[in-house]
Amino acid sequence: MSSTAVRPLRADAARNRALVVDAARRLFAERGLDVTLHDVAEAAGVGVGTVYRRFPDKDALLGGLVADKFETLLALADRAAALPTGREALREYLLGAMALRAGDRSLSTAVLRAAPQTAEALELRARLREVVTAVVERARAEGALREGFAADDVQVVTSMIGSIADRSRAEAPDAWRRYGLLVTDAVCPPAGGLPPLVGEPLPPPTSVDCGSPRA
Amino acid sequence: MSSTAVRPLRADAARNRALVVDAARRLFAERGLDVTLHDVAEAAGVGVGTVYRRFPDKDALLGGLVADKFETLLALADRAAALPTGREALREYLLGAMALRAGDRSLSTAVLRAAPQTAEALELRARLREVVTAVVERARAEGALREGFAADDVQVVTSMIGSIADRSRAEAPDAWRRYGLLVTDAVCPPAGGLPPLVGEPLPPPTSVDCGSPRA
Amino acid sequence: MSSTAVRPLRADAARNRALVVDAARRLFAERGLDVTLHDVAEAAGVGVGTVYRRFPDKDALLGGLVADKFETLLALADRAAALPTGREALREYLLGAMALRAGDRSLSTAVLRAAPQTAEALELRARLREVVTAVVERARAEGALREGFAADDVQVVTSMIGSIADRSRAEAPDAWRRYGLLVTDAVCPPAGGLPPLVGEPLPPPTSVDCGSPRA
Amino acid sequence: MSSTAVRPLRADAARNRALVVDAARRLFAERGLDVTLHDVAEAAGVGVGTVYRRFPDKDALLGGLVADKFETLLALADRAAALPTGREALREYLLGAMALRAGDRSLSTAVLRAAPQTAEALELRARLREVVTAVVERARAEGALREGFAADDVQVVTSMIGSIADRSRAEAPDAWRRYGLLVTDAVCPPAGGLPPLVGEPLPPPTSVDCGSPRA
DNA sequence: CATGAATGAGCGTTCATTCAT
DNA sequence: AATGAATGAACGCTCATTCAT
């Protein structure tokens, strides 16, 4: 059992690794994927070499963040699955996943091109998918689901809302909720009929439409 | 009226500008935002310097593409507005705008950061907004609109769908329609009740979610 | 005929290209192949980008120098071939090639790993080889050649002497001649019998032996 | 004698030094001078810090290898000196030294820039020189030596052949012998007259000539 | 005006060397 | 004394932008 256990990092190394990950998460969340590793290193207060010591390249760093994200989503899904009805569970998960996604730009802009093919990330993803599928099927069984909606659609609609959040994060970090609810209601309407939309429309930004601005 | 009229470009200058815009549109649509201006210049058959003479920087060039887009959208809106019911008109416009947006990667990924404060673009936008508002209000008057939905929400939901299209354009250029209809139905349900979703879910790409991949 | 003719470089471009080539030749000759292209650019008084505009990468620059070298060697071989006897011709070429090689470190240290597969260089090399083969065969016909020596051995012995020259260039730029003559005499002895070696031995440098020090 | 004796290293320190030297010799011989000190440390089973404790920098480590080499050469020279004639002895030593040199890339390519001013190395070198001088003088006395050839020329011609070996080690590790014999014959011809050259010419590598390729 | 040559900061990455543990 | 984490200058190379021709 001790053979595969990685030796724990030295105290200073662990601290620096955490600094790097924190800085990376923050910068990627704020500015998307075109932050440089020099930026990350500087924000973490370490040298570039230190970043490269922990992560073989930029994608590995991004991939590392992704694994964290999966863990958070899995915890969310487990909490949601514990709710009494499928409807509540699905709405809880959808809105929760959207909120997570809305809070972190890095995981959207382009990040995961080839990135996180780590065994860890893949396994977490598989487990997450199981839980989400169960939740979706419960909602379907209750007749609470838009006909034809599938478990794999969950990540798509989440992503969609994420792109809105990326646009408005700076001025109105919660503006995405108006659209998150619109879509959640479309997938799985609330028990008591559709309420009016919350909040205000996102004003036309600068142009007819726009994905996620960078830098 | 003559006071705002900029002096018309000389014939060859205008032709060059058009060459640049055409080339830029094509390249950005094909290859996303990381084409170099040398690529654009070469594709346009002009020197880089010529591109810079017409557009102060890369962003301005991207912005320049927007004006064209507005014209197309305006034509679409006019056609939609001619339909007999507000419901039909709004659904036509929404799905049409989504389709336009889905067909052009350049205008999504990161494009319009500061973008198109040209007088031309602003005026087109204003006119477009008027037509869309009229369409939305007709739908509202018919009771065909989700309560609280506003004209300014149109560009937001269009953009949302665009981000999905960006993700899947390469493998399944029409995959966005499944979600475009989901959202359109949420905004303005079809007359005969909700049909099942069309198509198949977009498979999870590499990760939990992802905005618009680049390059 | 004009279609394949490359358009002549603009005056400034040609001047800068020449500056780059001159600087590169000088630096490579002095310091071997580990000069950086920043060094070359600085020595040439241009920006790095300019170097990269003319030569796609470092190897291309090295390759360019190689073509020049072949031309010089070819001229030498033609001159040597015009001498009355094969013995004189071969000795002239050997000592001349050694001298050229001794004067330029760049073409030795490691340069031509993969480098000069340009059509130009290959053709020059082929022509050079023909002329050298003719010279070698004339010497063989005269009985002036060490038995078994082949035309392809010429470049090897030249290279050998070059490595000596690299060692002593700084202190005694002509010290290679002692060994160049030793080897030339071994390949093709002078008409009147072996004279004593010229010059003095290269003193043991720092160590038992040493190829070509770098930097 | 005790005054120059440095305090002996502690047993473990001495063992570590030996581990480092062994690993360095092996890696440099295999892969040339661009192995990193991390590679050396890892191969030695110690930390990089330990390497630096024993050798102030990379050059010093390379220099450290030289002392070993001198010991081997000294043993070779002693064996050669025991042969009955000066001619045999000199040829034995020359070809043996060339073979040693040909077998180890590390000691050639660039290695000994500032190298081995250790007392140990200097003393070994001095003793080696004495033995070699004696061998050379015996050959001279027998009339077996090219006129003017000096003991200090031995290391030069050895080095020369080494540079050839570096070029061909990968494909034909014994190709140097053709040239080693050519040079040995030029310095000290065999008793029965010059035989034809052995082997085949080294084919022109990629270019007219080339010292010691790296990596 | 159009051209494309020139620029140089900045990219991701490496590695000799230092120093806290 | 030994370790290996940390450092940061430097590498080859790119490309948005400027400016001489």
Q: What does this entry show, briefly?
A:
The structure is a homotetramer of 215-residue chains. In chain A, helix 8 (153-168) packs antiparallel against helix 9 (176-187).
Topology record:
The structure is a homotetramer of 215-residue chains.
Chain A: H1 11-31, H2 37-44, H3 48-54, H4 58-81, H5 86-102, H6 106-109, H7 119-141, H8 153-168, H9 176-187
Helix pairs in contact in A: 1-2, 2-3, 4-5, 4-7, 5-7, 5-8, 5-9, 8-9
The structure holds a DNA duplex (21 and 21 nucleotides).
Question: Could you walk me through the main structural features you see in this protein, from its secondary elements to its overall organization?
Answer:
The structure is a homotetramer of 215-residue chains. By secondary structure, the first copy, chain A, is mainly alpha-helical. Chain A has nine helices and no strands. Chain A has two domains: 8-55, Homeodomain-like (Arc Repressor Mutant, subunit A), CATH 1.10.10.60; 65-215, Tetracycline Repressor, domain 2, CATH 1.10.357. In chain A, 46% of the residues are buried. Chains A and B meet through helix 4, helix 6, helix 7, helix 8 and helix 9 of A and helix 4, helix 6, helix 7 and helix 8 of B. The first copy, chain A, binds a DNA duplex (21 and 21 nucleotides) through residues 9-13, 16, 36-38, 46-50, 52-53, 57-58.
Q: Which key terms come to mind for this protein?
A:
homotetramer, 215 residues, mainly alpha, Arc Repressor Mutant, subunit A, Tetracycline Repressor, domain 2, 2 domains, 0% strand, globular, disordered N terminus, DNA-binding
